[in-house]
Amino acid sequence: MAAPTTKELWFEHCDTAAARTTEMPTVTPAELAKLDPPTREALNQHRRRYILTERVYLTADVRNIEKAARRMLLRCEQPTSVVRRGLRISGPSATGKSTAVLHVGRLLDDALRVRTNRRGDASYLPVVYVPIGEVTSANKLWTAFAQFLGIELPKRGNADDRMYIIASLLREMGTRFVIVDEVHHLQIQKTQGAEAANALKRFAEQFDASMIYTGIDLDTAPLFTGKAGAQWRARTVPYDMRTYSVRQEGSRDEWTELVNAFAADLPLARHRHDSLESHADYLYHRTGGSIGALKNLLQDAAIDAIENGSETITRKLLDTVTIDLEAIEYATIHPYTNPQRKRGKAQ
């Protein structure tokens, strides 16, 4: 599914995620051997689709962000005369920031629809999601909002006029949360970037909603640093998502749990749900502790296992799967040493 950059795609995201209860297709080696080619291909197609289905795993980061969102939800109905405190979710690339914020956005959307008894009401838009990776000016910022809402802004008028149109429409639609993704792209050192940042700041001041910002390494992003960023920092609660580490006991356990969670969702005939636990260190070496890289590695390996008929994921198979450049660079810089060999055990 494409990123929900329009309200229709947002409704689809919320409905699809809520209804995602498809049972994993299971088959034994004996059952697989009895299938004729057309039936086996139909099953394989079903399994490939299942493997590639987006899922949210309740990692410690996701649970903590859910908790922060619940606090914001409790506060959002209380009247206030000041800017509502927001949330900023930061971290390196491929740590699952957008996945986490889209998940939390859906939970907030659902909670507000239940609270107001407005499930299925397309005129009600409690949560807005706007990625601004391509935004370089205030006018482009409001164009991104207009694209989400499905409206055309007037060609005449200035950026403030467009902001008031957006804010007025969001009030009419009952919006309580605004998620702004990829805010690290805002370059406030440049005139137009600074104008876009100021426009976003005025919007947060004028419009009574809770703001959630996400982006890469926001602690060092222009929007949140220096004197100009002091007010942004004061108005948001920070949450930093990190890549996992196998050198710290707690993080190592969480990484192993994550590997097992991914493994449990692989519908392979000869695959055991705990079969990848012994490869947890190797998988960390290949991915640098990145959730996104781990997902891509295991999805590709599982599909290869279906295609080649092995129906299981082995270290040899994993070695043949190519993943993203950043993960490759990490593996090059950090040579892998099998910890079991260090303890004098067989691989």
How would you characterize the overall build of this protein?
It is a single chain. It is globular, with a radius of gyration of 23 Å. With 347 residues, it is α/β, with parallel strands linked by helices. Helix 1 (7-18) crosses helix 5 (97-116) and helix 4 (60-76) runs parallel beside helix 5 (97-116). Strand 3, helix 8 and strand 4 form a beta-alpha-beta unit. Helices cover 52% and strands 8% of the residues. It is built from 15 helices and five strands. The protein has helices at 7-18, 29-34, 37-52, 60-76, 97-116, 138-149, 159-172, 191-206, 226-234, 249-264, 280-287, 291-308, 315-319, 325-333, 339-342; strands at residues 86-91, 127-131, 177-181, 210-216, 236-240.
Distance, first to last CA: 40 Å
Strand order of the largest sheet: 2-3-4-1-5
Described by the principal axes of the CA atoms, the overall outline is: globular
Report the major sheet: 5 strands, parallel
- List the helices and strands in order: HHHHEHEHHEHEHEHHHHHH
> What Rg, in angstroms, do the CA atoms define?
23 Å
Low-confidence segments, ≥5 residues, pLDDT <50? 341-347
Beta-sheet strand percentage? 5-15%
How many helices?
A: 15
On the 0-100 scale, what is the average pLDDT?
Answer: 88
Q: Give the oligomer, counting copies of the same chain as homo and different chains as hetero.
A: single chain
Topology, number of strands:
5
The secondary-structure class comes to alpha/beta
Question: Helicity, in percent?
Answer: 40-55%
